[in-house]
Write a structure and sequence with these properties.
- This protein is α/β, with parallel strands linked by helices and 254 residues long.
- The chain has a domain of 151 residues: TIM Barrel (Alpha-Beta Barrel), CATH 3.20.20.
- 41% of the residues lie in helices and 15% in strands.
- It is built from 10 helices and 8 strands.
- The longest helix has 18 residues.
- The radius of gyration is 17 Å and the shape is globular.
- The chain starts with 8 loop residues before the first strand and ends with a helix.
- The mean pLDDT is 97.
- The structure holds 2-phosphoglycolic acid.
- The site of 2-phosphoglycolic acid has 13 residues, from strand 8.
């Protein structure tokens, strides 16, 4: 049972939401909650939009809460107008970056090969890469979930990934922002499959944290977070309020 050994990671993906005011309110509140229970056995990570990373880094100082970004470019610098490089994220206080989220795969046409080059850039910059995979509703309906997840995993993870800095998030596209979730049994099947692939590909594949994402909230966190081989959550909507996000952390730890 690897899932009971790995310390859960609860990661908040703010997406394109927030402001300086919300960043301040949310992170002040979250830091206070964490401060009351510093020994709660979960790791917390927040991933605000890029313009708020520096403010977030200041607010999180000494809180024990880590900071991440939502994307990076595959190159370390250069003529790429509007893009953000992984070393810049590290320089601004990030320790992680979300890559290959289904919204980026859909909005920006990111292929798994492209995601792998970004993940490599993230690792080279000393960041943890949180690589997202997941099937659409149509793919699920035709019974292709495991095939899709296998192909995305194989294509998106760089060959030199190591457990300390590689996290996988399984996010069924149809569960994101919809209030719908797979059953715990369905999640267990996908996570067991991902675990067996990672163990086959990497010598420390048993230690890579596997997050579930898609409509996670405080009310369903305890159930979803205790599915075998689930080692935390990638949280969208419920990461925008300190109490909601903290409630998920409590559910994961309990
Ligand atoms: P949700 O989003 O929690 O709002 O469903 C999750 C995600 O897209 O990471």
């Amino acid at each position: 049972m690897t899932s009971s050994r790995l310390r859960p990671l609860i990661a908040g993906n703010w997406k394109m939401n927030g402001s300086r005011a919300l960043t301040t309110e949310l992170l002040t509140g979250l830091s206070a909650l964490r401060g009351k229970q510093p020994d709660l056995a979960v790791d917390l990570l927040v991933c605000p939009p890029a313009p708020y990373l520096t403010l977030a880094a200041q607010l999180l100082q000494g809180s024990g809460i880590a900071l991440g970004a939502q994307d990076c470019h595959a190159k370390a610098s250069g003529a790429h107008t509007g893009d953000v490089a992984a070393p810049m994220l590290a320089d601004c206080g990030c320790s992680a970056v979300i890559l290959g989220h289904s919204e980026r795969r859909a909005d920006h046409g990111e292929s798994s090969e492209h995601v792998a080059t970004k993940a490599k850039a993230a690792l080279d910059a000393g960041l943890t890469a949180i690589v997202c995979v997941g099937e659409t509703e149509a793919e699920r309906d035709r019974g292709a979930t495991l095939d899709i997840v296998s192909a995305q995993l194989e294509g998106s993870i760089p060959a030199d990934a190591e457990a300390g800095r590689l996290v996988v998030a399984y996010e069924p596209v149809w569960a994101i922002g919809t209030g719908k979730t797979p059953t715990p049994d369905d999640v267990a099947v996908v996570h067991a499959h991902m675990r067996s692939l990672l163990k086959a590909w990497f010598k420390d594949g048993a230690e890579m944290r596997l997050l579930y994402g898609g409509s996670v909230k405080a009310a369903n966190a305890a159930t979803l977070m205790h599915v075998p081989e689930v080692n935390g959550a990638l949280v969208g909507g419920a990461s925008l309020k300190a109490d909601d996000f903290w409630g998920i952390a409590l559910g994961a730890a309990g």
